[in-house]
């Protein structure tokens, strides 16, 4: 298996992980473990949110940059790891 | 002397045209007017009065004729008249003419035609007289001439120039012509010829420097022309200043705009390509570490837990926490019945607060029923509607042909109730018309919400309402229905419907239209409340003869089509196989129960008046057109009278032998109870956990686990007669005993005995039904054998689940399942072990047979000797035998 698949599988196998997806810089999903409609929804929304968060950090301190974004909700936690070209989104249910 | 007005003269009526004449001032000096202007200067018109005419004998019609309209009058006569009458005389105006007249006789002509304006005229000259006289003669001649020679040749007479007669026109011309008044002045100016055409040189000159170089007319204020206006008339109008302006603006109005789009996606190849790209690999390598750290953090601990909060229970408790007992709230008894009744079934009204419905039956055994059958017929069998507000009078009473043993509200319409009778009939009621009556009791019940415990005497009963019996709407057919008491009745959920063969289809009407009943005649029947389309049209006359029963007016005709002719859709017989004895079902539990009752909105109520109620417009479903639902669980649990729990299927299958559709054999059968199973109920929290209560014990089952019940309690001291899950706590259920005690079981506390036990009444409890009204108020209705319905309030501890109770109970069940599996495994292992042991035993037996007889004797002897040794030692040890005696034994 390719390295990409391996990494994604490893992440997916963590406890409580509901879904993983890789999205490009424009919000178009590349790889995902969820169904299409959910993926598209998550990708679009989180992509915008990441851009907003990044611009916020940059506005406050131009030398700073966004490294990780974690959104905790009642039901689960969404983790977004941004990069120049891609975005890795992981959804985990932390409660046992 | 006053001047004679000419008007007196003109007063004579002058018919005909009257030309306006210049007024003559009658002065004696004035010249008489003559007809100069008309070319006859000798004619002087006159007016002669009648007197004058008489005097001169010139009366108009007598003396004058047409031929001779003139008269010669002597001058002296006229003068005489003038002297006599002076100014009055008619000849006065022409006095002068007469005086100047040369002749003696004047000619007076009667002017009949008023040619000259007046009725007479005098010819003032002799020539004129002559002319006139001749003219008349000539005229006469001419007339005579004319008679003779009508045609006369016109001869041209060239005009002869006549001497010019001045008529005064040259005077006028002279007056009009322009003459120079002054002599004209002439100037002669001369210049030298050479100076003409010479170039001109102009020179400027200041006008003021040279005297008299210019003449000016200076303006000066002339006092004649300055007028001082002393008075001025001014008019004012107050007008508001109004200005009309207009502008053109750009009108922005809201416009609906929408775009249809779909999310951008990569195609598969692109995804593959990107997946292989190096950039993605690098990215993931960089990022995965941080992501994994984050994931692990979450796995280790939940950072956001508030530990303090999780320590304690949820919100503050309402009331005493230590109080775990059910509190008595109210109780209802029907005081009006003559015979002793027991309550067979209880149900809370699904939508109205504070309304509980009870079915009562007489407390007689079968023999007694037969004995008292006469009296029983006179008594109405009732379903009573009790409201919290009125503990004495029931709100409604539904009448049925016989005692009802079970009934249910229709989930889609709480005004329709179906009940099962003791004689095997199903009875349907439609109380839509009385719905407002029972709804009005809501107002009274609402006041109770605030104080949970209110003494009963403070509750005001709702006046003295006449409780009326409401007749049933329809009953099923006696011949084709059940033959014995109907023990359980359920409405099928409105999501599906079944056909004759038990296949499941989707339900297009959004209402529950099918029922399932089970009865003591060992059958389970499915019923449809819609009118069936009969294949063969029945003759109408025959129908009329049969159904000559008159239906009272106040019964709604919702189910008229079903009345007395209602047949079940399909029937399942629970047979025990080859034997004639069949299973007698007491309770059934379907997998898909309609748990939610449709609560009608107030808005919907208003529209319902105009809309036709769905139940009044039922049409038979055409099963051919409906979509069949696959994967539908058609299996259900049945509890029987013998204490067995059967898991069977209602879908029919084709029997291979006969080719007909037959009911399937039960999938599994368990005999766990020692008495008839009276409760088969699914848990409201888990759809596959079933509680069965019967005989002396309770069993909890999980659907799908075939090996046995998850939990089976040990036999209790008293028989269990009623049972129900708690509606809010997943691990709690209530069991009613035959001595009037209610046991509350809590699976998380103890599983071998009830958590608490409480006495409710003195007699057997027949039915338990809890109901949740709000988060703070939960009631449990307990019906007993003596016909009293007790309403108790469930305390906080029993109604509120602890945190994670659902998961805990779920975990418990899972453990039990695992336990069962383990038991199964162990059983199989045990069996295996047993088999092995048996085999070994067998082998060993075989081995002993091979030994010879001598060897056996020698072995026996050796055994005996060793036994003797043992005996000796024991006796010496006991001190019973002496050493000498022992040698004695040895010798033996």
Automatic annotation (TrEMBL), chain A:
> According to its record, what are the GO cellular component terms?
cytoplasm; cytoplasmic dynein complex; microtubule
Name of the protein in question: Dynein light chain roadblock
User: Where does the secretion signal sit in this chain?
Assistant: none
Q: Does the keyword Transcription regulation apply?
A: no
Report the function annotation for this chain. Answer: Acts as one of several non-catalytic accessory components of the cytoplasmic dynein 1 complex that are thought to be involved in linking dynein to cargos and to adapter proteins that regulate dynein function. Cytoplasmic dynein 1 acts as a motor for the intracellular retrograde motility of vesicles and organelles along microtubules.
The protein's superkingdom reads Eukaryota
The record's family statement is: Belongs to the GAMAD family.
Q: Which UniProt keywords apply?
A: Cytoplasm, Cytoskeleton, Dynein, Microtubule, Motor protein, Transport
Q: Which InterPro entries match?
A: DYNLRB1/2 (IPR016561), Roadblock/LAMTOR2_dom (IPR004942)
* Primary location class: cytoplasm
What is the protein's quaternary organization?
Homodimer. The cytoplasmic dynein 1 complex consists of two catalytic heavy chains (HCs) and a number of non-catalytic subunits presented by intermediate chains (ICs), light intermediate chains (LICs) and light chains (LCs); the composition seems to vary in respect to the IC, LIC and LC composition. The heavy chain homodimer serves as a scaffold for the probable homodimeric assembly of the respective non-catalytic subunits. The ICs and LICs bind directly to the HC dimer and the LCs assemble on the IC dimer.
Protein location = Cytoplasm, Cytoskeleton
Annotated GO biological process: microtubule-based movement
What Gene3D superfamilies does the entry give? Answer: Dynein light chain 2a, cytoplasmic (3.30.450.30)
GO molecular function of the protein, one example? dynein intermediate chain binding
Give every Roadblock/LAMTOR2 domain span.
4-92
Q: Say if the entry is tagged with keyword Nuclease.
A: no
Coiled coil: which residue ranges? Answer: none
Encoding gene, per UniProt annotation: DYNLRB2
Pfam short name (any one):
Robl_LC7
């Amino acid at each position: 298996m390719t390295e990409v698949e391996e990494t994604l599988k490893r992440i997916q196998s963590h406890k409580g992980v509901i879904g993983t997806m890789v999205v490009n810089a424009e919000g178009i999903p590349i790889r995902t473990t969820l169904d299409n409609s959910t993926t598209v929804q998550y990708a679009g929304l989180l992509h915008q949110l990441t851009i907003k968060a990044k611009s916020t950090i940059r506005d406050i301190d131009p030398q700073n940059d966004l490294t990780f974004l974690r959104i905790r909700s009642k039901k689960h936690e969404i983790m977004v790891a941004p990069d120049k070209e891609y975005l890795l989104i992981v959804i985990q249910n932390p409660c046992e | 002397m006053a001047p004679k007005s000419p008007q007196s003269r003109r007063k004579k009526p002058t018919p005909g045209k009257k030309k306006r004449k210049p007024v003559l001032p009658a002065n004696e000096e004035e010249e008489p007017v003559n007809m100069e202007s008309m070319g006859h200067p000798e004619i002087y018109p006159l007016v002669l009065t009648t007197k004058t005419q008489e005097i001169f004998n010139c009366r108009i019609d007598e003396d004058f004729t047409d031929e001779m309209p003139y008269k010669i009058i002597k001058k002296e006569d006229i003068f005489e008249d003038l002297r006599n009458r002076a100014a009055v005389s008619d000849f006065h105006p022409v006095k002068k003419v007469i005086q100047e007249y040369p002749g003696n006789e004047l000619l007076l002509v009667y002017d009949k035609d008023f040619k000259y304006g007046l009725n007479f005229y005098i010819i003032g000259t002799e020539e004129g007289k002559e002319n006139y006289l001749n003219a008349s003669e000539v005229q006469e001649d001419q007339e005579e001439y004319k008679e003779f020679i009508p045609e006369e040749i016109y001869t041209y007479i060239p005009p002869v120039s006549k001497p010019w007669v001045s008529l005064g026109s040259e005077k006028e011309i002279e007056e009009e012509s322009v003459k120079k008044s002054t002599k004209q002045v002439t100037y002669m100016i001369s210049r030298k010829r050479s100076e003409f055409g010479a170039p001109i040189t102009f020179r400027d000159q200041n006008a003021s420097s040279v005297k008299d170089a210019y003449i000016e007319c200076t303006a000066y204020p002339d006092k004649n022309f300055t007028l001082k206006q002393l008075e001025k008339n001014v008019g004012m109008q107050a007008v508001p200043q109004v200005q009309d302006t207009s502008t053109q603006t750009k009108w922005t109005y809201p416009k609906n705009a929408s775009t249809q789009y779909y999310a951008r996606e990569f195609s598969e190849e692109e995804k593959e390509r990107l997946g292989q790209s190096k950039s993605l690999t690098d990215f993931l390598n960089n990022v995965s570490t941080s992501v994994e750290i984050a994931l692990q953090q979450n796995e280790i601990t939940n950072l956001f837990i508030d530990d303090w909060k999780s320590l304690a229970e949820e919100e503050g408790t309402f009331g005493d926490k230590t109080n775990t007992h059910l509190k008595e709230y109210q109780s209802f008894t029907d005081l009006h019945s003559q015979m002793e009744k027991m309550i067979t079934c209880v149900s809370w009204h699904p939508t109205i607060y504070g309304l509980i419905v009870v079915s009562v039956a007489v407390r007689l055994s079968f023999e007694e029923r037969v004995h008292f059958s006469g009296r029983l017929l006179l008594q109405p069998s009732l379903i009573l509607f009790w409201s919290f507000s009125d503990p004495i009078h029931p709100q409604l009473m539904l009448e049925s042909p016989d005692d009802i043993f079970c009934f249910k509200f229709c989930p889609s319409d709480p005004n329709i109730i179906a009940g099962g009778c003791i004689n095997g009939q199903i009875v349907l009621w439609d109380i839509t018309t009385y719905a407002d009556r029972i709804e009005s009791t809501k107002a009274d019940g609402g006041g109770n919400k605030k104080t949970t415990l209110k003494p009963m005497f403070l509750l005001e009963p709702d006046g003295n309402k006449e409780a009326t019996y409401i007749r049933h709407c329809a009953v099923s057919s006696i011949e084709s229905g059940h033959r014995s008491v109907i023990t359980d009745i359920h409405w099928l959920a409105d999501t599906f419907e079944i056909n004759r063969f038990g296949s499941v289809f989707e339900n297009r009407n959004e209402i529950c239209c099918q029922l399932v009943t089970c009865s003591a005649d060992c059958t389970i029947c499915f019923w449809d409340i819609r009118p069936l389309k009969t294949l063969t049209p029945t003759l109408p006359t025959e129908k009329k003869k049969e159904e000559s029963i008159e239906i009272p007016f106040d019964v709604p005709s919702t189910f008229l089509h079903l009345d007395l002719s209602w047949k079940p859709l399909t029937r399942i017989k629970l047979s025990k196989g080859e034997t004639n004895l069949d299973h007698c079902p007491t309770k059934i539990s379907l997998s898909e129960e309609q748990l939610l009752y449709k609560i009608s909105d107030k808005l919907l109520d208003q529209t319902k008046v105009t809309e036709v109620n769905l139940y009044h417009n039922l049409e038979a479903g055409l099963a051919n057109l409906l979509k069949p639902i696959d994967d539908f669980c058609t299996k259900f649990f049945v509890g029987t009278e013998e204490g067995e729990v059967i898991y069977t299927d209602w879908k029919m299958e084709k029997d291979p032998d006969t080719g007909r559709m037959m009911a399937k054999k039960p999938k599994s059968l368990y005999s766990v109870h020692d008495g008839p199973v009276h409760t088969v109920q699914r848990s409201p929290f888990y759809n596959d956990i079933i509680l069965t209560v019967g005989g002396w014990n309770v069993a909890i089952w999980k659907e799908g686990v075939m090996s046995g019940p998850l939990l089976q309690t040990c036999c209790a001291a008293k028989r269990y007669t009623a049972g129900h899950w708690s509606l809010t706590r997943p691990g709690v259920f209530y069991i009613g005993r035959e001595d009037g005690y209610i046991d509350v079981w809590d699976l998380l506390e103890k599983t071998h005995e009830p958590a608490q036990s409480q006495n409710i009444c003195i007699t057997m409890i027949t039915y338990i039904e809890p109901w949740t009204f709000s988060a703070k108020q939960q009631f449990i209705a307990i019906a007993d054998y003596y016909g009293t319905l007790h309403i108790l309030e469930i305390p906080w501890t029993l109604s509120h689940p602890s945190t994670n109770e659902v998961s805990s109970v779920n975990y418990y069940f899972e453990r039990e399942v695992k336990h069962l599996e383990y038991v199964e495994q162990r059983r199989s292992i045990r069996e295996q072990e047993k088999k092995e042991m048996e085999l070994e035993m067998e082998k060993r037996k075989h081995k002993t047979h091979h030994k010879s007889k001598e060897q056996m004797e020698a072995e026996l002897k050796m055994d005996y000797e060793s036994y003797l040794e043992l005996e000796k030692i024991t006796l010496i040890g006991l001190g019973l035998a002496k050493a000498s005696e022992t040698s004695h034994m040895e010798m033996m």
